[in-house]
Design brief:
Helices cover about 10% and strands about 30% of the residues. It is mainly beta. It folds into two domains: about 120 residues, no CATH class; about 200 residues, DNA ligase/mRNA capping enzyme (D-amino Acid Aminotransferase, Chain A, domain 1, 2-Layer Sandwich), CATH 3.30.470.
């Protein structure tokens, strides 16, 4: 499913900003947003725009953001402002809250949580990949390969989720890569959005070096599909925030015929490629999750601050989302996000 970039929400609370008389702090789900004084009250119905949303500054409702920076999507030369994590007078602000009255095209706005991304024609900002990671493509990422984005933990009531059955791993800031063997036994490679041709691209080189095709061939059932997903990180990738001396693949998900394989059941060869498992229990609150992410030291690069934590549910209960991530706010403020 595509990410919900804008939703109809009710403000949980609005409280004083300790460092600014003309600003207040609003809470939307688990997100904190800095707003103008007296513009909103607790319980107001609003449109909430998540971070990473690219807003069209030619729309008069968003053109006030132009002075804060504009980026261009090189895929179609579209320019807009990208919502990022910022600090305003010492307080974290993530996203944008606007009155529903500014959006008459939405009609009935009584349904809290309604996804209005498509109705408002919004797009997510995806930084352009370096040439060595985005060369010749076969076409869009095929449907047999799920998209790799984990849901942000701020979007969930964590108290309603099981407290046990989660496996925590360090979140690596790299480029999402999916290796898969299809029902015909053909090994293929995809990024988050595209399938890549095997023509001199780094993802294919890494696969050959690690023998990933051979690993998947061993676990793929006859006429079945096996998918291994992870992050490719290191030199020349996302500015290499962990300072890795080479390029590495960190696997975080294995699927066989569409079903997740628990990490404990992975073959030994794949376990060696897995993202580091860390001893961080599933949080009782969003605040606990963000505190844990901010305090974490990288296992991959000791002494460095990692991007955050991913919890993957491997228990037996039905949960609305089996993969949740907490991104360190300190990391976002330093690296942009």
């Amino acid at each position: 499913m595509a990410r919900a970039l804008a939703t109809i929400e009710q403000l949980r609370d609005v409280r004083a900003h300790g460092n600014a008389d003309a600003l207040e702090l609003a809470t939307v789900r688990g997100w904190q947003v800095v707003v103008k004084l007296d513009e909103f009250t607790a319980g107001d119905t609003v449109v909430y725009f998540e971070i990473d949303t690219m807003l069209d500054i030619t729309d008069e409702r968003f053109n006030f953001l132009a002075s804060r920076g504009v980026r261009t999507d090189v895929r179609d030369d579209f320019s807009g402002h990208v919502l990022r994590t910022v600090k305003l007078r010492g307080e974290i602000s993530q996203g944008l809250v606007l009155p529903v009255g500014l959006f008459p095209e939405l009609g009935d706005v009584s349904e809290a949580g309604r996804d209005v991304t498509d109705e408002l024609g919004l797009r997510k900002w995806d930084p352009p990949l370096p040439t060595n990671l985005s060369g010749k493509v076969v076409g869009p990422r095929p449907g047999i390969v799920p998209k790799t984005d984990a849901e942000r933990i701020q979007n969930f009531d964590v108290a309603s989720l099981p407290s046990q059955g989660w496996v925590a791993t360090e979140k690596i800031d790299g480029t999402s890569t999916s290796y898969f063997m299809d029902e015909d036994g053909v090994f293929r490679v995809a990024t988050r959005n595209l399938e890549l041709e095997p023509v001199g691209q780094l993802q294919w080189t890494i696969a050959e070096d690690l023998g990933i095709a051979e690993m998947l061939a061993e676990i793929r059932p006859d006429s079945g599909v096996a998918v291994l997903q992870g992050e490719l990180a290191g030199i020349g990738i996302q500015k290499n925030p962990l300072g890795l001396s080479d390029r590495q693949f960190f696997a975080f998900r294995l699927l066989v015929d569409g079903r997740d394989v628990p990490t404990a059941d992975w073959p030994d060869a794949l376990i060696e490629l897995a993202a580091p498992v860390i001893d961080v229990p599933f949080p009782a609150t969003v605040e606990d999750a963000l505190d844990a992410a901010d305090a974490l030291d990288s296992v991959v690069a000791p002494g460095k601050r990692p991007e955050g934590i991913v919890w993957r549910y491997e228990g037996d209960e039905l949960v609305p989302e089996r993969s949740l991530k907490a991104i360190s706010n300190r990391y976002l403020l330093k690296h942009g996000g």
